[in-house]
TrEMBL record:
Keywords, alphabetical: Hydrolase, Protease
Protein name stated in the entry: Aspartyl protease
InterPro entries from the UniProt entry: PDZ, PDZ_6, PDZ_sf, Peptidase_aspartic_dom_sf
Domain of life: Bacteria
PDZ domain span: 333-389
Any one GO molecular-function label of the UniProt entry: peptidase activity
GO biological process, one term: proteolysis
Length: 417
């Protein structure tokens, strides 16, 4: 079995790909680009699944589906990552482009379309600006453990006032002229390329709190990523650990992970959060220079219920029951993905150097058959990952399949950051 070559949701290189594709999509003729509710409906409520902090909603394309899409504030044009959901005859009508220039990765082939009809709940966008990847570059399904077909973002958020309740895993979206009570603290946002940016106070180790412009990215599963300060790479704090932050368009994203003492969202103080410092230069760094300092991701956003009003450039934040939940990093050094028919096989795709898993002899390519005496048939990917960050010094028993044999490994978890 082959490890998926790319992981989504870790931040920076996903953003570059989205920017480059958006440029191509914006070059096609435009039509009315707003979702419309059917009939006299003024609002709609739908449920979503929360997987690795990412919002997965049902979407219909050309009256077929439902398909699983990530609702992503970091996306402009809709992105279809699984081209198999479209009739192959449709591709002859589309313009094919190469998307490249961000790092050392190969160019991607994508098709540009505005002829797709998209439906979310009872809201429909008849001519949807979209990019369709020729292959599933992000390996979203393997990363999340469920079939994922694409990403939808700004065209949905621009069409409504959106109440995003992580606490109940529900979304209610209202026509702009419908009055309703907006609970929480209202903070101004700025839209750049139809993506929301917010100014927050961020304090990192050894530095005073400072105002930081952050992209609010519900499609980034991490907490906080700091990239640029005063036009240069954001300085590392005195204590951090090296880490692979994911794989994206330009190849492997390496960097460091540390703790940030304080992030303030209005009066709400988020303490001791994890923060990523990606290590990249050249083309990717230039592509990200929109005046921002970094990204605030879904591991922080999911601790609030949020009302998103793009039209009036204001978001309302109300802490939910997860607000005080501690931020924990993996304590084993393993990265696991799902593979095989029905995504039922749990495979080890990466091992951090010097980690507890490496020290115990766990190997890339091992298949996990059980964790702590639970067969994987009783678990899902999130449950397995929870076992792997259960606490410093805790034991984790792995039942593995390697080269035709069953192997047992006992890992002593270690809190490295």
């Amino acid at each position: 079995m082959v490890s998926p070559k790319n992981h989504y949701g870790k931040g920076p290189l996903k953003a570059i790909l989205i920017i480059l594709i958006t440029v191509h999509v914006l070059s096609v003729p435009s039509y009315a680009q707003e979702f419309k509710l059917k009939g006299n409906r003024k609002k709609e409520r739908i449920s979503f699944r929360l997987i690795k902090n990412l919002i997965v909603i049902p979407v219909y394309i050309n009256k077929k589906g439902p398909y699983n899409f990530i609702l992503d504030t970091g996306v402009g044009a809709m992105l279809i990552t699984d081209p198999s959901i479209l009739d192959s005859l449709q591709f002859s009508k589309l313009r094919k482009v190469k998307v490249g220039g961000a790092g050392n990765g190969e160019d991607l082939d994508a098709y540009i379309s505005i002829i797709l009809e998209t439906q979310i709940g009872h809201a429909t966008l008849t001519y949807t600006p979209a990019a369709i990847l020729e292959e599933d570059f992000f390996s979203l399904s393997n990363y999340l453990g469920t079939p994922i077909h694409g990403l939808v973002g700004s065209y949905f958020f621009n069409s409504f006032v959106v109440k995003l309740k992580y606490s109940t895993r529900s979304i209610t979206f209202y026509k702009h002229d419908v009055p309703f009570r907006r609970k929480g603290i209202g903070l101004p946002i700025e839209l750049i390329l139809n993506k929301p940016y917010i100014d927050l106070s961020v304090q990192t180790q050894g530095m005073e709190p400072r105002k930081s412009k952050l992209l609010m990215d519900s499609g980034a599963s991490n907490s906080l990523s700091l990239e640029i300060l005063d036009g240069k790479k954001y300085p590392l704090p005195a204590y951090s650990i090296p880490a692979n932050l994911g794989v994206g368009f330009g190849g492997l994203v390496t960097g460091n992970i540390a703790r940030a003492p304080l992030v303030s969202i209005g009066p709400y103080e988020i303490k001791n959060t994890l923060v990523s410092y990606p290590d990249y230069e050249g083309g990717p760094l230039k592509a990200l220079r929109t005046g921002r300092n970094g990204i605030i991701g879904a591991d922080i956003l999911s601790r609030f219920d949020i009302i998103m009003d793009y039209e009036n450039h204001v978001f309302f934040f109300k802490p939910n029951q997860n607000f005080k939940k501690p931020f924990e990093h993996d304590m084993s050094g393993l990265e696991i993905y799902q593979s095989g028919e029905g995504l039922k096989d749990y495979m080890i795709g990466r091992i951090e150097k010097g980690s507890p898993a490496e020290l115990e002899g766990v190997q890339i390519g091992d298949e996990i058959l059980g964790v702590n005496l639970h067969p994987v048939a009783e678990l899902d990917l999130e449950a397995i990952n929870d076992f792997l960050k259960a606490g410093d010094g805790r034991k984790c028993i792995l039942k593995l399949f390697r080269d035709g044999e069953v192997v047992y490994k006992i890992i002593t978890l270690k809190k490295r950051i």
